[in-house]
């Protein structure tokens, strides 16, 4: 018989940090629904995150390791983890600047160029049954981006949205009838959940990647997600990216196609408000 995880509290986070790092915790502050800053006795400050599902911990840890490429954007180092808790280096927050944005655009292009073995492939040691936020995210390797994206990033979430009653069957058909197509490119190494909140503008003058849902995909998907909810200095990011890794004609017009994935995830998690935005994106294509 399985039992639910005990409550996620500052005390539980401090205990996890102490046990996983081998260094006693001295104080703890909650900074998110299941995210804590923990001061350690040796003077270090770490971030401690809790996930309800072991795959979510493993997926995030594997994603961060996979994205830690020397030429790419910096990512927090994973200190330790178990089936529930993830301990990371704390990155001192700062403010977005035009220079940091341009550097980030170039670094993101370099990260994408490191590639992946296939579309939909998970990071090494990462689970196929992964997560994006609180939603399950299937990582199923496939040689064709259009076929993979249509099945595992559109139809998968459309079916869930219909099952829970936030999309009607007629609305689902509108979305599933969208023609999935993009210029043929090799699989890119994606952050996978690259909205503005997962770009951490740090005190060291750099933009760091946090909270990834990494997998192999089309590089336009990361850029489209970055544009979906707005991002400081977005035009500078995109211009710097395009300068070092030119994008195919029509890339901006394809953003709504790539955005169907995160919009459908939000629809499944948060309901009808995002269903309307998803339908608008589908009808624009």
UniProtKB/TrEMBL annotation:
InterPro entries: Fructo-/Ketosamine-3-kinase (IPR016477), Kinase-like_dom_sf (IPR011009). Pfam families: Fructosamin_kin. Keywords: Kinase, Transferase. GO terms for molecular function: kinase activity. It comes from the Bacteria. Residues 1-25 are annotated as: Disordered. Belongs to the fructosamine kinase family. PANTHER family: FRUCTOSAMINE 3 KINASE-RELATED PROTEIN, PROTEIN-RIBULOSAMINE 3-KINASE. This is Fructosamine kinase.
């Amino acid at each position: 018989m399985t039992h639910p995880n005990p409550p996620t509290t500052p005390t539980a986070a401090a205990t996890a940090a102490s046990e996983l790092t081998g260094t006693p915790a001295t104080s703890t502050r909650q900074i998110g629904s299941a995210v804590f800053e923990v001061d350690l006795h040796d003077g270090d400050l770490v971030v401690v995150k809790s996930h309800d599902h072991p795959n979510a911990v493993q997926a995030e840890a594997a994603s961060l390791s996979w994205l830690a490429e020397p030429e790419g954007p910096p990512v927090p180092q994973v200190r330790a983890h178990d089936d529930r808790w993830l301990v990371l280096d704390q990155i001192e927050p700062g403010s977005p600047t035009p220079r940091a944005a341009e550097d980030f655009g170039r670094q993101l292009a370099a990260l994408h160029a490191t590639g992946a073995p296939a579309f939909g492939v998970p990071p090494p040691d990462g689970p196929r049954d992964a997560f994006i936020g609180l939603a399950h995210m299937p990582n199923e390797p496939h040689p064709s981006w259009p076929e993979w994206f249509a099945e595992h990033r559109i139809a998968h979430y459309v079916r869930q949205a219909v099952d829970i009653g936030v999309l009607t069957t007629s609305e689902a058909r509108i979305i599933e009838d969208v023609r999935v197509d993009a210029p043929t490119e090799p699989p890119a190494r994606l952050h996978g959940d690259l909205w503005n909140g997962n770009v951490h503008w740090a005190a060291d003058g750099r933009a760091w990647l946090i909270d990834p849902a990494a997998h192999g995909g089309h590089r336009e998907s990361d850029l489209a997600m970055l544009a979906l909810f707005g991002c400081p200095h977005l035009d500078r990011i995109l211009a710097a990216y395009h300068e070092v890794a030119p994008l195919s004609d029509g890339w901006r017009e394809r953003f709504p196609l790539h955005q169907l994935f995160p919009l459908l995830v939000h629809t499944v998690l948060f309901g009808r408000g995002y269903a309307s935005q998803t339908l608008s994106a589908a009808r624009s294509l």
